[in-house]
Input
Amino acid sequence: MHRLTLAQIARGLAAKDFSAVELTEALLTRIGALDPQLNSFITVTTDQARAQAQAADARRAAGESGALLGAPIAHKDLFCTKGVRTSCASKILDNFVAPYDATVVEKLAAAGCVSLGKLNMDEFAMGSGSESSHYGPVRNPWNLECVPGGSSGGSAAAVAARLIPAATGTDTGGSIRQPAALTNLTGIKPTYGRVSRWGMIAYASSLDQGGPLARSAEDCALLLGAMAGFDPKDSTCVDQPVDDYLAALNRPLAGLRIGLPREYFGAGLDPRLSDAVMACVEELKKLGATIKEIGLPNMQHAIPAYYVIAPAEASSNLSRFDGVRFGYRCENPQNLEDLYKRSRGEGFGAEVKRRIMVGTYALSAGYYDAYYLKAQKIRRLIRSDFIAAFQEVDLILGPTTPNPAWKLGEKSSDPVAAYLEDIYTITANLAGIPGLSMPAGFVDGLPVGVQLLAPYFQEGRLLNVAHQYQQATDWHQRAPEGF
Ligand code: GLN
Output
């Protein structure tokens, strides 16, 4: 049963081949047996999963027929879940039990999804390898010595290892697309404002978006359809109807204009990944797409701009973790300042502290204009590059990452080396446009992802192209050995 996709599960449940309870039990057993190798879960919510599965079976028995009714998933541990620890993989929130559900959690529960637990990640979603978790690093099921990507690495590892068919993630600079690429999954970062951020613990509020990671574009379409939509509780959530993503999947690709940004294929890209991407381009041509070279001239400034803006917002967002209202508090504080200093000093990990310091510096008087304001101007230029490019093409295609998964620990002494892995993904967050990563081959037994970028609110187009590609190829169906 663990091999089934969400779409297959929907058919199986509808045909009464198995019940949601049976499926949930099978996956709980699998998580218990296999997750010790991966460390993809922080919390397994066994009792809640059983109760939700029973409720889903009861709703089906009463005549309901939603595609996600009884579908097992799990949430990245930065979505607040009522009555369940929501840690953000940080010591500072190790004891935090959320008093409410995030909108995404609520929407998926209403659709009938069964949540099996909370997934490991980089602390506060800061990272690209899921190595900075307070609960220990996550491992890649394709090679247990390698990282699964990050920050949604627990989501990626769990889905790739067939512990769950799909999961939620969040993407501030690539954290859905990059782990999807490194573990042979499909993941979509929606347009900024498409999915509610309410109850999603903030990293960089102007960049964060929630989205699904799954084993096919079809499954992403199913989940995104249930996650997206206006939420009055999030002032940046856009009040615009949600497209029918499933209906969009089967549109033919004839006449589709795809742009290949020359900046995406320059130095820094592993030539073997470049070959895989070009093979994908050939396949899309066969499906009717036309290809054009385009330019995104300001891309070279994206990493420096992102690594000013994201830490600046993080330094502000994370000031709420002060040892007073919730989360970790140091022992025997001597006075208020000591309480703040030691609670934060002991509660946050090294990478989070680094970002808070960088961000505080970039926002401080005298430096604001030189760093933060400058970065915001670059952000605007990057957005303009995309808007200009989309005058010429319908979609932009390139590699998701410059390299396949790296060995655990390999980049931990050099944070900038890890930041550079985000080169192809962060521009979409800076511009707010949607992006998807899909499986497109292997290098040394490690998955390669292709990234598709589209104009605002064209998630349906991204899912459509990925689905058509997945009808013609079988990369996405390959499973890691031993799982
Ligand atoms: N790797 C990027 C960072 O560390 C992106 C993380 C994310 O998307 N949450 O900021």
In short: Residues 338 and 414 are 31 Å apart (CA to CA).
